[in-house]
Write a structure and sequence with these properties.
heterodimer, A: alpha/beta, six-stranded parallel beta sheet, B: mainly alpha, 6 helices, 79% helix
Chain lengths: 249, 215
């Protein structure tokens, strides 16, 4: 039909169908993950923070909730649910920061849900999720004060970052805290790779839910990504072969 | 999980999200009602994001007000922030956001501070480049540092004279790294990011992830 982006619609349907199928299959088809240093070390850092009465800081970046770069922050919110549950009974529960007001509200809701699920709703404080500054560098400028005053020992940066993400990670490294950082922007990923001890590259940013065992749907999500990736790689190889044979489509 | 009001929020989020998303694939402008509805939802989103900024500023005020009230660690910084927060707000309300006074505050306070942070970033990155091999001794880190080194030699002014013997080699190597190796690698990473973004968005649209809460 004229005007309908049929290919786009088909790809969307493919994603939805695969997601539903893999959720239905669930653990009947066991999953094996490759090692991602950051997530492995994160679990240990969370345990250390809880035992030593220090705080975990999760940054959701400086991107807007309705911006095109919000997906990484949504991945950060998934990780937040797990961090909030693990740290809910510690003396110093997780603190969340963002550069966007709407994202701060969403982070507060996520925190409240996680505390309710952990049976620790009385420990929820709305100011645990906060906006640090409305511009990227005003956000970064507030990070050292937050790390110092909240006695942070684990710093997780998962969200939309520009160059200020590298500054935020560097402030964490200077305080000798655990720093795991990931974003969707490829140039910022390069900066974070240089600065953070545990950088997340590419799709690793979105794998937190599966690696931290948030729900079977997150493990299914990884399978969907891998399946579509194989289809894309297959398409590229077929295209390459046809090109070598001099056949143009 | 108990059934509750979250079902309503989930239904509203899923229906409005899928409606806006489908508009990218189906020409909704041919159906005036659907077009108007999609436009309305997107306008609400922009409006709510603006309200979000206001709530965020109130959140900043509340966080620092609480810290000053409880005299918790670092409260003097919070007190300074509150004082200048209120001064800037009053100046903006009295003289208007486009006034010369507000512009002076922006040009002589905020701009220099942000420029300073950019300068610190350049130094931090240079130091991180030197430091990286001390805490992450793996093959990829060596490749990262080596690549950065060759790209700097190939593009940095004055590092190698333009008429020097190695210039052609390093400039060619830099171009190959930037146009072949880096571009190819970046595309691979971008495919991974795109797949992750799509699946993360779909989880929210299908109410598997509910960042708007369960209550």
């Amino acid at each position: 039909m004229i005007g309908i982006n049929l290919l786009g619609l088909l790809v969307l349907v493919l994603f939805v169908v695969l997601l539903i199928v893999f959720i239905a299959i669930g653990d009947r088809w066991p999953v094996s993950f490759r090692k991602i240093r950051g997530y492995e070390a994160l679990l240990k850092a969370l345990e250390r923070a809880v035992e030593s009465g220090e705080r975990v800081h999760l940054s959701l970046g400086t991107g807007s909730l309705i911006g095109t770069d919000s997906a990484a922050a949504f991945a950060g919110l998934v990780v937040l649910t797990e961090i909030a549950k693990v740290t809910s009974l510690s003396d110093r529960p997780v603190v969340v920061s963002t550069g966007d007001g709407a994202m701060a509200i969403v982070a507060q809701d996520t925190l409240r849900s996680a505390y309710r699920e952990a049976g620790a709703l009385d420990r929820y404080e709305p100011i645990s999720a906060r906006m640090l500054g409305p511009t990227p560098f005003s956000y970064a400028a507030n990070i050292p004060i937050l790390l110092e005053s909240e006695r942070v020992s684990a710093n997780v940066l998962l969200g939309a970052f520009g160059a200020e993400g590298a500054l935020a990670a560097d402030f964490g490294e200077r305080k000798q805290t655990f720093v795991m950082a990931g974003t969707e922007d490829i140039q910022s990923q390069a900066l974070l790779y240089a600065v953070a001890e545990y950088p997340l590259i590419g799709e690793e940013v979105f794998a937190g839910g599966a690696y931290l065992d948030v729900s079977p749907a997150h493990r299914a999500s990884l399978r969907v990504q891998d399946t579509v990736r194989f289809i894309i790689v297959g398409g590229i190889l077929i295209g390459l072969l046809l090109n070598l044979l001099g056949i143009s489509l | 999980m108990k059934l509750g009001s979250y079902l309503i929020w989930a239904a509203v989020a899923a229906v409005s999200g899928l409606f806006v998303l489908l508009g990218y694939f189906i020409p909704v402008n041919l159906i005036p009602v659907a077009f108007q509805l999609r436009l309305l939802i997107m306008q609400w989103a922009v409006l709510l994001a603006a309200v979000g900024l206001f709530v965020g500023l109130a959140n900043i005020f509340l966080v620092h007000w609480t810290k000053v009230g409880e005299q918790s660690e670092g409260w003097p910084y919070s007190a300074i922030l509150l004082i200048f927060f209120l001064i800037t707000l009053m100046v903006g309300l009295v003289f208007g956001p486009d006034s010369e006074t507000v512009r002076l505050l922006f040009n002589y306070v905020q701009l220099p501070v942000e420029a300073t942070l950019s300068g610190i970033l350049a130094i931090s990155l240079a130091l991180a480049g030197f430091r990286i091999l001390s805490y992450r001794r793996d093959f990829i880190s060596v490749v990262f540092v080596g690549t950065a080194f060759f790209v700097l030699i190939g593009s940095g002014p004055g590092l190698i004279p333009n008429d020097g013997p190695g210039y052609e080699f390093f400039a060619g190597l830099r171009n190959w790294i930037a146009q072949v190796a880096a571009a190819g690698g970046a595309r691979g990473i971008l495919i991974g990011v795109a797949l992750g973004s799509v699946v993360t968005g779909l989880r929210v649209l299908l109410a598997i992830d509910r960042p708007y809460g369960d209550g």
